[in-house]
Design brief:
- Helices cover about 35% and strands about 25% of the residues.
- The protein is of the alpha/beta class and about 290 residues long.
- The chain has one domain: Alpha-Beta Complex (Spore Coat Polysaccharide Biosynthesis Protein SpsA, Chain A).
- The strands form 3 sheets. It has a 9-stranded mixed β-sheet with strand order 5-4-1-6-11-8-12-10-9. A two-stranded antiparallel ribbon has the order 2-3.
- Strand 2 and strand 3 form a beta hairpin.
- The longest helix has 13 residues.
- It is globular, with a radius of gyration of 19 Å.
Amino acid sequence: MVKKAVLPVAGFGSRMLPASKSIPKEMLPIVDRPAIEYVVKEAVRAGITEIILVSHSAKTAIEDYFDTQFELEQQLADKGKDKLLAEVRDILPEGVSVISVRQHRALGLGHAVACAAPVVGDDPFAVLLPDVLVDCEGLDEDLGTMVSNYQASGAAQIMVEEVPAERVDQYGIVALKAEVPASGDSAPMSAVVEKPAIDQAPSRLSVVGRYVLPGEIMGILAQTPPGAGGEIQLTDAIATLLERAPVEAYAMRGRTFDCGNKAGYLQAIFHYAARHPELGEQVRAMMAAEM
């Protein structure tokens, strides 16, 4: 069973400066809660009960957010602010734990994931990049489907979506053994390449930022040399895994928002604010007035 998820949060968020100079980019709010909460809740809905933050000494605010703040809860209870109290307590659902391990040097995504090896052990696990929000409103949850597919077939699952040809050199790109799967389905992969040149890309299917992987990948990461950008790339380790075991590309149903850059962050705010249960009507009116 897939019960663990690794969230790499150690990066400095240079694309979100100056806001990220003193606030972890993962703590920047999307309407009324930080982006990282959306990602953790996504993992919880997929059946994850152990969240592993791969963090940095300057990012203790993320750990604090998921901790209990007794004084605040007591004050809300004393003042009869039951709705707010329930929202604060629901930040981390009962039965779900958050722990943190340190990435002392920024050596790439593969290195960040490998930092969680002592906690993951030999267990299968998910990886969720916290810069990316995945909204599946009204649809079956993508991550939950990936977990189910992994548990049914034993094949690692890599979430993908199609990007324009001129942008393939910005992403990890996968090659398939057969046709591109329909949304919500998986298909066997034959290769994955990190940021290929446009004329060398095997497809236009980019890795989105959600993975379900076997514990075996940790041993592979430990032996993976630096790749693109001089960093240890998770895609390189997945390419090695492909030589030993099946790996499948999962065609996502939902919509992604890249909150690691300012335009994507603002887009996410507009999207989630427009359907907020309390603010949505007012927000939609404001947005229409600005058009």
